[in-house]
Specification:
A hairpin with a 4-residue loop joins strand 19 and strand 20. This protein has six domains: 95 residues, 2-Layer Sandwich (Beta-Lactamase), CATH 3.30.450.20; 190 residues, GAF domain (Beta-Lactamase, 2-Layer Sandwich); 122 residues, 2-Layer Sandwich (Beta-Lactamase), CATH 3.30.450.270; 35 residues, no CATH class; 81 residues, Orthogonal Bundle (Helix Hairpins); 155 residues, Histidine kinase-like ATPase, C-terminal domain (Heat Shock Protein 90, 2-Layer Sandwich). It has a seven-stranded antiparallel β-sheet. A six-stranded antiparallel β-sheet has the order 9-8-7-15-14-10. By secondary structure, the chain is an alpha+beta fold. Helices cover 40% and strands 23% of the residues. Adenosine-5'-diphosphate binds next to helix 19 and helix 20. The site of adenosine-5'-diphosphate (ADP) has 21 residues, from helix 19 and helix 20.
């Protein structure tokens, strides 16, 4: 046992629902269902009703109670016990009647009857009960805020019960509790004190949700055993989860004693099926509260539990209204925006107001837009990578980032609170909100870090801390919590933005479809036109030649020259038509993507061009070998051929050079590049700025027909078509004295 690590999780393991012990302020009888034979009794029967336990075991309950009472119990067996308890019972002892509140519940094949002695013959009737609680309920319902409601409850419960101190104790998400309302006659207030989660072990919380009220009239009681110790039907300890007399854990009793509490009562406050808090009552001397008064308090707790939802909803009502109006602004702003990011940029200040954040970042692809105070782009990126696997329903929130993310230490001053929203994982669309660290002083009831204080040497025992002196702790690394209404507003924002993104995607898809259709039409028109034009053109060409051959001697020189021009023009027209045909075929041909070693391909292009133009002395520079990518080999070959041949052609420098390369990512962008930028650079004649766009148009040349070796003006149009069919872009930068650089991007992803 000494090797065991000691903390209060040991308490979490204590099986407190089967202690086989009860408190001594009543007796417990276990009865067989339906015969009512007594199977098990508490060992204090002699003291309470003057009968030895052994005398009762095996007997019928009718030995103790008269026929009328037995009848009453039998009737209840068919009904809901909760509406019947307490039963008004009495047992004759030495010619005197002892009156009891009988509290009954059933369990598997047994019935558990607990008898709590009561002074007077008459218990408080329903009418009395109603009179007492009616006014309280109305006041609870009318309380304008949660805190005011809590204050009404503590005052009323203390008035009804007479405890020294009544508190409302609220749990936070981590299970730590805080006293939010108090009514007391004691000197030291507990209001605003915090208690660590270990003060109430897990399985005690579980019992609190089953059993809404627990009473310990005297924490210094001697527990009473059951005879026999185990349930004789199962030979297992009796499950006392629903018993009102169940003996509580020794650790808990010690805890109460250390706090100076002798009598204690607690009532569960439930919200959305979870334990929201407790109404905790303390008394410095023993104090018994009758079952009827307890029921009244329990009822107050239930009404308060129901009202919690209403009060929470009406809390921050103005703020919620403001959030709604912000959302309307988002709807309007985003519905007009061309794209999500543009829309958001216009709504930066609303974005901050939506969550009362001091900073926000919108991420879309590798674009980042900041508002207010935010960590650096790199920090946000790393943070986002950490957040992504933890998103739950597209959301992540924390008010103390550094607790789980130590890297957040460097920016905790501006981002201890983080709220993240995923809009689209595929398109990498996220919004993050940040809140600064608020350094707070928390008043603990005792040192929260030392919940265990006593370890008696060797054979130790867990003992709750002894000191409940105010213990102040400065809490760092925490931001103000995100309110549920803020988180909700963010979740709603997501559906709005997703709507816009989807609308845009639909619009784009429709446009793409239309574009593709018209492109296809154009391609087939160009193909048919150029194909059909070729035949009559060939006829004109042939007939012009026949004329020259057969009638040259009839014509004068001028006539012959005109015929020669006609032949040349038909030839040029044929060149143009062939180019157009080739261009239209490019659009119709299927891309055959395969891994292509661009380095080899460029070397091949260079040697082919060098053979074709042996007279031009050109230095080819390749600063670093090009990589392999997935592409259509023939088309990319044509692309490099067109660009490199232009680079050679449009060059009048004595020392011509052409450089072919690609641009290295400089490592700033965190998203792996999906495309690569290549370039073909020359020290040629350059291109005037006003023509930079025009040169990609079909048949567009900037020079005389035969200057610079002539051409049809289709080369760059084809280059652009090839790049675009590969999903890239092409553009040119030029300086008329230094030459031109043609850039193009090609996708490097294997399956695009
Ligand atoms: P072509 O070379 O058949 O005229 P292109 O479409 O290849 O047709 O080029 C269009 C025009 O762009 C060329 O006529 C030329 O004026 C200009 N051009 C293309 N490449 C270069 C270059 N590297 N340097 C300067 N001008 C160029």
């Amino acid at each position: 046992m000494t090797d065991e690590i000691v903390d209060l999780t040991n308490c979490d393991r204590e099986p407190i629902h089967i202690p086989s012990l009860i408190q001594p302020h009543g007796i417990l009888l276990v009865l067989q269902d339906p015969t009512l034979e007594i199977l098990q009794v508490s060992s204090n029967t002699q003291k309470v009703i003057g009968r030895q336990p052994e005398e009762l075991l095996g007997k019928s309950l009718s030995d103790l109670l008269n026929a009328k009472q037995i009848n009453l119990i039998q009737q209840c067996l068919a009904e809901d016990f909760e509406s019947i308890n307490p039963l008004n019972l009495s047992i004759k002892h030495l010619n005197k009647s002892i009156y009891f509140d009988g509290i009954i519940h059933s369990l598997d094949n047994i019935i558990i009857l607990e008898l709590e002695p009561r002074k007077a013959k008459d218990s408080t009737g329903f009418f009395n009960f109603y009179q007492q609680v009616r006014g309280i309920i109305t006041r609870i319902q009318k309380a304008p805020t949660m805190l005011e409601m809590c204050q009404i409850v503590v005052t009323e419960v203390r008035r009804i019960t007479g405890f020294d101190r009544v508190m409302v104790y609220r749990f936070d998400r981590e299970g730590a509790g805080r006293v939010i309302a108090e009514d007391t006659n004691q000197e030291t207030p507990y209001l605003d004190l915090h208690y660590p989660p270990s003060d109430i072990p897990k399985q005690a919380r579980q019992l609190y949700t089953l059993n809404w009220l627990r009473l310990i009239p005297d924490a210094s009681y001697q527990p009473v055993t059951l005879i026999p110790a185990n349930n004789p039907l199962t030979n297992q300890p009796l499950d006392l989860s629903l018993s009102v007399l169940r003996s509580v854990s020794g650790i808990h009793l010690e805890y109460l004693q250390n706090m100076g509490v002798t009598a204690s009562m607690s009532i569960s406050l439930m919200h959305e099926q979870k334990l929201w808090g407790l109404i905790a009552c303390h008394h410095s001397s023993p104090k018994y509260i009758s079952y009827n008064i307890r029921t009244m308090c329990e009822f107050i707790g239930q009404v308060m539990s129901v009202e919690l939802a209403n009060k929470e909803a009406s809390e921050d009502i103005d703020y919620k209204r403001q959030l709604k109006s912000l959302q309307t602004q988002f709807v309007e702003g985003l519905s007009q925006a061309e794209c999500f990011l543009d829309g958001m940029v216009q709504l930066k200040s609303q974005l901050l107001n939506l969550t009362s954040a001091t900073g926000a970042v919108i991420c879309s692809g590798d674009q980042y837009i900041e508002a207010g105070k935010t960590p650096s782009e790199d920090e946000v990126h790393a943070l986002l990578d950490w957040i992504k696997p933890q998103l739950h329903h597209n959301l992540f929130e924390t008010r103390s980032l550094t607790k789980d993310y130590p890297a957040g230490e460097s920016f905790k001053a501006i981002a201890s609170g983080v709220l993240a929203l995923e809009i689209s994982r595929v398109h990498h669309n996220y919004i993050l909100w940040f809140r600064p660290e608020i350094i707070q002083t928390v008043n603990w009831g005792g040192n929260p870090n030392k919940p265990v204080e006593v370890l008696s040497e060797g054979n130790f025992r867990i003992s709750p801390r002894k000191s409940f002196e105010l213990w102040q702790e400065t809490v760092q690394g925490y931001a103000l919590p995100w309110k549920p209404c803020e988180v909700e507003a963010v979740a709603e924002l997501r559906s709005l933005v997703v709507g816009v993104v989807l609308r845009q995607a639909d619009k784009l898809a429709a446009m793409n479809f239309e574009l593709q259709r018209s492109n296809e039409e154009l391609d087939s028109f160009a193909y048919v036109a150029s194909h059909d034009l070729k035949e009559p053109l060939r006829g004109i060409h042939n007939y012009a030649n026949f004329l020259m051959e057969d009638y040259a001697d009839v014509l004068d020189n001028d006539g012959v020259a005109k015929l020669q021009t006609l032949v040349r023009l038909t030839q040029r027209m044929e060149d143009l038509i062939n180019s157009l045909l080739h261009f239209s075929r490019l659009g119709r041909a299927e891309l055959i993507r395969q891994p292509v070693n661009l380095n080899e391909l460029v070397q091949q292009v260079i040697s082919t061009l060098s053979i074709a133009r042996p007279q031009s002395e050109v230095e080819f520079r390749i600063p670093q070998p090009l990589k392999s990518i997935q592409c259509d080999r023939a088309q990319i070959n044509e692309l490099f051929t067109n660009l490199i041949s232009n680079a050679i052609k449009y060059n009048d420098k004595p020392n011509k050079w052409v450089e072919i390369g690609f641009i290295e990512e400089n490592g700033q962008r965190k998203v792996a590049p999906t495309s690569m930028t290549f370039y073909v650079r020359d020290n040629g004649i350059g291109i005037p700025e006003e023509h930079l766009d025009k040169i990609f148009q079909i048949f567009r040349r900037l020079h005389g027909r035969d200057d610079f070796g002539g051409g049809t003006g289709v080369g760059l149009t084809i280059a652009r078509k090839i790049v675009e069919r590969h999903g890239g872009k092409i553009w040119v930068e030029s300086n008329q004295t230094q030459g031109s650089t043609f850039y193009f991007t090609l996708s490097v992803e294997p399956n695009t």
